Structure formats: structure tokens, C-alpha cells
Amino acid sequence: MSKQDIKENIPIIYLKSIIRGIILSIVLLLITAVVFHYSNLDPKHIDTVTFIITVLSIVYAALYGCFKIKTKGYFHGGIIGILYMVVVGMVSLFVQKGNIHFKGLVIMLIMSLAIGIFSGLIGIILADR
CA 77 to CA 64: how far, in whole Å? Predict the structure, then answer.
């Protein structure tokens, strides 16, 4: 694929990346729910596991997107990370009926930006090989 084709397809690559990240999140959350249901694990660990699943999903989405785009990994990875968190935040807003914890939202956006940037750089390194 030429650079011009990649530039024209960046929104599609973003969309595919975010969808892949969300699918990974759903699969991992379903596995987590089954494990917590059928084991005697302490429910207080659910927040930690959910955070780890979110990080893994952002990493996967940013790696996939930057591997396909092959340029400016820090920029595209950061955008993918933030877009992923915006989509997840909007879904959780509808599920929680409008309860927003602003400080937590800002922390998650900054975290998703940093993880996306780091993962984007790794995606570019992997794309060069």
C-alpha cells in the first residue's frame, strides 16, 4: 500500500483499531466475569482487572493502527488511545445513567494518551521489520 493510500484510509484504520480494541475488551471482560463467578476470588480486585484489560486493549488498538499506518506512531497511537477511551466513556455514560466522575475521566484520558503514544512507537518499530 502506498503512502497516499494509507493517508486516505487513516480514518478507516482508526475505526478498525478501535473496534478491535473494544472486541478484545469484551472478550477479556467476559472471561473475567466467568472466572470471578465460578471462583472464590475477592470482588475488590475487579477494578484492578478492569484497568489492566483497558490498558491491554489500548495497547492492542494502538499497535494495530500504527502497524498499518507506518508513520508518526506517537501521534496516531495517542489519537487511537484517546478515541478508544472516548468511545468507552460514552458507552459507560449511557450504562451508568449520567453519573460522571470528572477526575477519574481526566486521569483515564491522560493514561490512554500516554499508553497510546508508547504503543504507537512500538507499532512503528514492528512495522519497520
Answer: 9
Q: What is the pLDDT of residues 11-52, one digit of tens each?
A: 898 999 999 999 999 999 999 999 988 988 888 888 889 899
Q: What cell was used for 67?
A: 502497524
Contact status, residue 64 vs residue 27, Cβ threshold 8 Å: no
Q: What is the pLDDT of residue 20?
A: 95
Cα angle vertex 86, ends 81, 91, to 5°? 130
Which whole-number Å values give the CA distances from 106 to 65, 80, 101, 111, in the listed order?
23, 16, 9, 8
- 3-state secondary structure string, the chain? CCHHHHHHCHHHHHHHHHHHHHHHHHHHHHHHHHHHHHCCCCHHHHHHHHHHHHHHHHHHHHHHHHHHHCCCHHHHHHHHHHHHHHHHHHHHHHHCCCCCCHHHHHHHHHHHHHHHHHHHHHHHHHHHC
C-alpha span between 22 and 93 (Å, rounded)? 16
pTM value is 0.87
